[in-house]
Amino acid sequence: MSEPVSLSVDVVSDVVCPWCFIGQKRLDKAVAAVDGVDVHINWRPFQLDPSVPRGGKDRRQYMLDKFGSEQRIRDIHARIEPLGAAEGIAFDFDAIRIAPNTLDAHRAIRWAGAAGEAVQNRLVRRLFRLYFEEGADVGDHAVLIAAAREAGMDAAVVETLLPTDADVAAVQTEIATASRMGITGVPCFLIEGKYAVMGAQETDVLADALRQIAAAKAGGEAEATG
Questions:
Q1: Pairing of β 98-99 and β 195-198
Q2: How far apart (Å, rounded) are the C-alpha atoms in residues 89 and 132?
Q3: How do strand 57-58 and strand 5-13 relate by DSSP bridges?
Q4: How deeply is 86 buried, as exposed, middle or buried, from its count of CB atoms within 10 A (0-12, 13-18, 19+)?
Q5: What are the DSSP calls for the chain, one per residue?
Q6: Shortest CA distance to 91 belongs to which of 100, 101, 82, 104?
Q7: What is the pLDDT of residue 1?
Q8: Nearest 5 degrees, angle CA 119-CA 121-CA 124?
Q9: Separation in Å, CA 69 to CA 6, 74, 76, 82, 87
Q10: How distant is the alpha carbon of residue 149 from its chain centre?
Q11: With contact defined as beta carbons under 8 Å apart, do 46 and 158 qualify?
Q12: pLDDT digits over 34-44, tens only?
């Protein structure tokens, strides 16, 4: 039996992006559907709105300022909810009270990556669920510390680092790098560091991309990125 092909997938996303939550679910299903490919997922930061203050904003007013009317907000949510339900997501937009700044969440995700791929994946999934299904403020340090503990991190380290500026510049640099690469919306799935799949594509689209790039790599047509 031949060895599985190893692929890296960098997912550029924001934890307050509903399409990123949908994309995460579809990526998981795509990975499960592709045989003979060992996929390694790394979560990369993006901020849909870095102008949100670190303490967050009232989400209802924030959405009104952004979209103009309650009806338009309802229409947007009505479009997203059934797509989420199809992926096992119970979106509860009415439960969300705070539109947070996500910089600290991305710092925690970065630290989770240092603890291992599985830990980072658990933290990202927990933050999506906290925000979209439970209405939690994922900019709140207590919420982030509890999520880190649930993901298997050393919560004391996270609790110590969050009040400091640790890795603020590093996360902001990563976000700026994504912008320079032409990433203006998320999710973006960057496979092997150079093949980009933009948006919350259907599971079949993601699975096909993984198969094609794995086949090219196995045949020596795609360079390994290390």
A1: unpaired
A2: 8
A3: unpaired
A4: exposed
A5: -PPPEEEEEEEEE-TT-HHHHHHHHHHHHHHHH-TTEEEEEEEEE--S-TTS-TT-EEHHHHHHHHHSSHHHHHHHHHHHHHHHHHTT----GGG--EE---HHHHHHHHHHHHH-HHHHHHHHHHHHHHHHHH---TTSHHHHHHHHHHHT--HHHHHHHTTTTTTHHHHHHHHHHHHHTT--SS-EEEETTTEEEESS--HHHHHHHHHHHHHHHHTT-S----
A6: 82
A7: 45
A8: 110
A9: 47, 9, 11, 21, 28
A10: 19
A11: no
A12: 999 999 999 99
d(CA 133, CA 96): 9
For strands 5-13 and 188-191, give the pairing: antiparallel
For the CA atoms of 150, 111, 177, 7, the dihedral, rounded to the nearest 10 degrees, stands at -70
67: which 2 tokens?
């979209």
Distances from the Cα of 2 to the Cαs of 7, 37, 168, 208, in angstroms?
15, 11, 43, 20
Side-chain-side CA neighbours of 212 within 13 Å: the count stands at 10
pLDDT at 225 over 50: no
Q: What's the rounded Cα separation, in Å, for the pair 205 and 210? A: 9
Place of tokens 């045949």: 219
Q: What is the pTM of this model?
A: 0.95
